[in-house]
Design a protein that fits this description.
heterodimer, A: 84 residues, OB fold (Dihydrolipoamide Acetyltransferase, E2P), B: 712 residues, alpha+beta, Beta-Lactamase, 6 domains, 5-stranded antiparallel sheet, 44% helix, Biotin/lipoyl-binding protein (chain A), transcription (chain B), coiled coil (chain B)
Chain lengths: 84, 712
């Protein structure tokens, strides 16, 4: 069930400028995943403190996003990779 | 089957209308028969019930053709009878007031009135025909007759079959048991027929008509309920029931997967929602929202952001994490359902409360962090433990020293290690470094006796740029600077020249160094461990060691006893070194127990270092993997050493006791080593007989002790 996956959500309103991941790509803690350009013009980098595998990518470059919108679902690792 | 009485057949009076106009008047009083048949182009086409007409136009007995035609009825619906009448034909007769009697050759004989046919029928006593019964049973529909009290007073078999009931169960029972009470009441109240009412119960599906029975005063006296058994209806009913169940199951399944499901149409209007909804998510009752636009809620600020809006905009699946008023986190996933034209038809919004999941995840993360920390700490402990395990000892004396070193490690106090050469002063210094919080910082070792006096200064304190000829042009950092935050181990501190002692004192006091050729002091944070095999007090007395420095260094004095004072350690150390060498050269040398005895007997003036080297020498020289006492004693020059070093008594005991003790040890040792009393006597420098006697006595004493300790 999708529900048990972690979610990467957009903290802001804006437009997806760059996507650094693909479906099923593996991510590590604090990897930059998305770049979102806000209406004010600055670019927000989306990072999260978990590592795991991307379960599904929900947005594409150029897409408008709002706060709370899920950008991707992630299957988190159960162990700590400990890069921090 | 019965025949018609000829006298009841009446003549057919025809009236030809071919040449008449609609306006023409017709004198109807001329016609004596109550029924007038109309002819056109020599064909009967209609009939008129003159009695009905004449009641209205009784005055002038004249009727316009138009009126005649208007009140006429088509002849086609009139039944044609043979002279012999079969029962099914009766039903045709009932519908029309008359029937035409055919001749056998095809022409018409006349007509007969309905009442006459029926009267004729009732006359057929011998046939005992129960017409009503026949009518009721032959109709392929169920019929129930209700009286004024809404009690079922009659019914047919088809009806019972369709309602899956028996006569006993329904006769004289209230009709409401089988049929809709509301409809029955309605028919009684309004006198109107209710048609095509589908009634579905558990396993039956029927089509019902509720029809009133009027009396002459136009009052409803009863009801006829016509039941039609439509297999299709029943199938539909089953299907509906199945779908209902399916729906119930689906709802249950969906509610266990999601906390809330909404269905919205392409305009954003709420169509339906699941049984369970997330409390507090909507500020309105969802029931009131059915048919209303969800997007309005967003406009009203009731909730935001709307998944519906995002799905409508993007035309694809959108997930949003939303927060309710009471701080619950909801993951809402909007899924568009597209029609054939690829346009959005519906939007399914499935939501799940992920507050718990999120909370648990956070907690898990916290716990993980903590357990990581624990793991790290445990590893730390293990590492320390491993290091401690590397320290080979078994004696309580060394145990005490290691414990002390462990304690010291937590502080940065200056330590002064004192002990004979080779006792392992450096090992202890390293232990202090490893066990303490400076373990990740440098540990620098400097032998004060090994470096030329005039170089020592620049080595320790470094020098500034161009301090002297041949110096590195960029200057050099001294040991103290390099060991900043770490430990500097000054071996052979007693060898340090006096003028450097002053400088060292300064470092200890001020925690700063002044490089050679410089005047600027540099702050350093270094823990100092000094070591010496000399009695520093004596050096102070002799004036070769500064007293103030001595006291500065002597903060934590640690005396490491020589190996001969901790005989327990000899065997473990010997095994350890042997193992090391075996591993290194892939050999399997081992020491026999008597070899260990010899090793333990040796005074080890060179301490651990000597032991290590002797073991190496033994391995290199031995032909046999088993190294025995004889072989060992070849290397240790026991006799010579024995004469040289005297037995050490560390406490005051009665003289005789000490003598006995020494004598016993000597004899046992000699016997062990030389096996025969003659040889032992020679080594001990006494007569053979006295060795023999004393050895015997020792053995006897020992046996007695053993016997005494054996429990009875």
């Amino acid at each position: 069930m999708a529900v048990y996956f972690g979610v990467i959500i957009s903290p802001c309103q804006g437009r997806v400028e760059r996507v650094e991941i693909t479906n099923e790509s593996r991510i590590y803690e604090w990897d930059p995943l998305f770049y979102i350009k806000t209406p004010e013009g600055h670019v927000e980098v989306i990072q999260i403190g978990v590592s795991g595998e991307i379960e599904s990518l929900e947005v594409q470059v150029g897409e408008a996003v709002i706060p709370g919108m899920v950008l991707a679902y992630i299957k988190e690792d159960l162990y700590v990779t400990g890069t921090d | 089957m019965f025949s018609i009485a000829r006298e009841k057949v009446r003549p057919i009076i025809t009236f030809n209308i071919d040449n008449l106009k609609e306006e023409s008047d017709i004198q109807v009083s001329n016609f004596k028969e109550p029924f007038l048949f109309l002819k056109k182009q020599n064909q009967l086409f209609a009939y008129v019930h003159l009695n009905n007409l004449l009641q209205v136009n009784i005055e002038n007995q004249q009727i316009k053709l138009k009126t005649l035609l208007d009140s006429s009825k088509s002849i086609d619906s009139v039944c044609r009878l043979n002279e012999q009448i079969s029962l099914p034909v009766l039903f045709q007769i009932i519908g029309e007031p008359i029937a035409i009697v055919k001749r056998e050759n095809g022409g018409f004989d006349g007509y007969i009135r309905r009442e006459d046919v029926l009267a004729e029928l009732f006359k057929q006593e011998n046939k005992s025909v129960d017409l009503l019964k026949i009518i009721l049973t032959s109709i392929p529909m169920g019929i129930f007759i209700l009286d004024r009290e809404k009690i079922i007073i009659n019914c047919n078999d088809s009806g019972l079959k369709m309602m899956k009931s028996t006569a006993e169960q329904v006769m004289n029972q209230p009709a409401e048991k089988l049929f809709s009470g509301d409809h029955i009441k309605n028919v009684f109240a309004t006198g109107k027929t209710i048609l095509n009412h589908v009634q579905i119960t558990g396993d039956t599906g029927v089509l019902l008509d509720y029809s009133p029975i009027f009396n002459f005063k136009e009052e409803v006296e009863g009801i006829v309920i016509v039941v039609q058994d439509l297999p299709m209806v029943e199938e539909m009913a089953m299907e509906i029931e199945y779908i209902k169940n399916l729906n119930k199951d689906m709802n249950a399944i969906l509610s266990s997967i999601y906390d809330e499901i909404l269905v919205v149409n392409q305009k954003g209007e709420l169509i339906r929602f699941s049984d369970n909804v997330i409390p507090g998510f909507w500020k309105v009752d969802l029931k009131e929202m059915i048919g209303k636009n969800i997007l309005e809620l967003e406009n009203q600020g009731l909730f935001c952001p709307s998944v519906t809006r995002m799905v409508l905009e993007k035309k694809k699946k959108v997930s949003i994490v939303q927060e309710t008023r009471n701080g619950r986190k909801i993951l809402a996933v909007g899924n568009p359902v597209l029609n054939e034209k690829n346009e959005i038809d519906r939007i399914i919004i499935a939501s799940r409360d992920i507050t718990e999941t999120t909370r648990l995840k956070t907690e898990l993360k916290e716990i993980r962090k903590i357990s990581e920390q624990y793991k790290k700490e445990l590893d730390d402990f293990k590492n320390k433990d491993r290091f401690i395990k590397k320290l080979i000892y078994r004696s309580p004396k060394m145990e005490r020293i290691i414990n002390q070193a462990r304690k010291i490690a937590d502080f940065s106090s200056t330590v002064l290690l004192h002990g004979e050469s080779g006792v392992g002063k450096e090992v202890i210094a390293q232990a202090i470094h490893q066990l303490g919080n400076r373990s990740s910082k440098p540990f620098l070792k400097l032998n004060c006796g090994a470096i030329p006096e005039n170089l020592l200064e620049s080595e320790l304190f470094g020098y500034a740029k161009g301090a002297f000829t041949g110096a590195d042009k960029n200057g050099k950092e001294g040991y103290f600077k390099q060991a900043d935050q770490g430990i500097i181990f000054l071996d052979e501190i007693g060898e340090m020249p006096l003028h450097l002692q002053v400088k060292l004192l300064r470092v200890l006091q001020e925690q700063e160094v002044i490089p050679v050729g410089s005047t600027t002091p540099i702050k350093v944070d270094v823990q100092i461990i000094a070591a010496t095999n000399k009695q520093l007090e004596k050096l102070v007395e002799a004036g070769t060691f500064r007293e103030d420095l001595y006291y500065r260094l002597n903060v934590i004095p640690l005396h490491i006893p020589p190996l001969r004072e901790r005989i327990e350690d000899i065997s473990v150390l010997a095994f350890h070194f042997l193992q090391q060498l075996n591993d290194k050269y892939n050999k399997s040398f081992h020491l026999t127990p008597d070899a260990i005895n010899v090793l333990e007997f040796y005074p080890w003036p060179g301490n651990v270092r000597e032991l290590q080297n002797i073991i190496e020498r033994l391995i290199v020289s031995s032909e046999d993997p088993a190294i025995n006492a004889e072989f060992v004693s070849q290397f240790l020059k026991l006799g010579y050493d024995l004469k040289k070093s005297k037995p050490v008594i560390t406490r005051v005991i009665p003289l005789q006791e000490a003598i006995d003790h020494v004598e016993e040890q000597l004899i046992l040792l000699a016997m062990k080593q030389f096996k025969t009393t003659t040889k032992a006597a020679k080594a001990l420098g006494v007569s053979q007989s006295s060795v023999s006697r004393k050895y015997q006595k020792i053995l006897n004493d020992r046996n007695m002790n053993i016997e005494n300790t054996v429990p009875n």
